[in-house]
């Protein structure tokens, strides 16, 4: 007799969550073949076998002002999703990042008896520490990807498991610069700078002009510089290409790629990245970088005044010091960014020191994430029909 499928709800809210969610789905499907996954996700999660009720682009909005513009749509989507899961009663619900959306949904589901897990801690160590009380009400277990986060949850009485960072497992094969240049058919001796203006449409819309102007400044002092710009979607690619056209950069030696971000980072001498997951990816690949970010002024003012530490980039947060330069908001100018990139480009001693620091960071985060995640989730999956 064929056993009924076990439904597992999953909600991810941005491209990095889509990657984490796809690996999570694959790990669980290998161990629970009759599992059926349904919720909000992107192309990777869909390719892993998830039934997508809403595309994750609906949630990929960053900053207070931007969220307010989409507030009614987001709240309505969460209400419909909650009604779906309360009716269908999944064996487990997993919120992948997106805490502002997922924690309220998790609290509602947990109160009705559905087991809930949140995968990837909100940055309570950076700002809004009070959310840990909401997390305690919302989740049966928190899965964290950085080792220092475990103590924060244990002290608050929240069940927690450190599972390592999946990117550390995934990116271990991307450290050979020469091999990656050969794969991408790039000159072995070229001075290559990879530009990462963000993964969300709102980010690229806000950052692309700055990145184009910075590339032009770099090219003025390093005429043979070669720029790679990997972008994750057709919409972000079109936005960046429009910024190139508006600024009439002339003979800038720049190639826009569709995807291939990890390959482009690995081939680079230096990476210029918008603050976010891409900075951690560059560190795990072992590439020196400059970190930057701009957002609408109102959103910046709110976030700046609620932060607990001076770092924005994940490599600096993990190191506990400024190991790579950060230029945020008003300091994020083409002049500042280009000078910092050129300094790294021509200082081999600093680059080697950073690469060694990043190698140690990668080793600490490489913990066989898929195995650890599945082991933490399996005991929570309710195998009997929900009441």
Name the descriptors:
Rossmann fold; alpha/beta; 17% strand; 13 strands; 49% helix; 18 helices; seven-stranded parallel beta sheet; 387 residues
Write a short abstract of this structure.
The chain is of the alpha/beta class. It has helices at residues 15-31, 43-47, 64-69, 71-88, 99-111, 131-138, 149-156, 166-170, 177-183, 201-221, 234-247, 261-267, 277-285, 297-304, 314-319, 334-345, 348-365, 369-377; strands at 6-12, 35-41, 51-55, 92-96, 116-119, 141-144, 160-162, 191-196, 225-231, 254-258, 270-274, 289-293, 326-328.
Describe the structure.
By secondary structure, the protein is of the alpha/beta class. The chain has 2 domains: 173 residues, Rossmann fold; 196 residues, Glycogen Phosphorylase B (Rossmann fold, 3-Layer(aba) Sandwich), CATH 3.40.50. The strands form 2 sheets. A 7-stranded parallel sheet has the order 3-2-1-4-5-6-7, with helices on both faces. Helix 9 crosses helix 12 and helix 10 packs across helix 16.
- Give me the CATH fold name of the largest domain: Rossmann fold
- The proportion of strand residues reads 15-25%
CATH class of the largest domain: Alpha Beta
Mean pLDDT: 88
| Global geometry | globular
In the predicted model, the low-confidence regions spanning at least 5 consecutive residues are none
SSE blueprint and pairings:
Blueprint: E1 6-12, H1 15-31, E2 35-41, H2 43-47, E3 51-55, H3 64-69, H4 71-88, E4 92-96, H5 99-111, E5 116-119, H6 131-138, E6 141-144, H7 149-156, E7 160-162, H8 166-170, H9 177-183, E8 191-196, H10 201-221, E9 225-231, H11 234-247, E10 254-258, H12 261-267, E11 270-274, H13 277-285, E12 289-293, H14 297-304, H15 314-319, E13 326-328, H16 334-345, H17 348-365, H18 369-377
Parallel strand pairs: 1-2, 1-4, 2-3, 4-5, 5-6, 6-7, 8-9, 8-11, 9-10, 11-12, 12-13
Helix pairs in contact: 1-18, 4-5, 5-6, 9-12, 10-11, 10-16
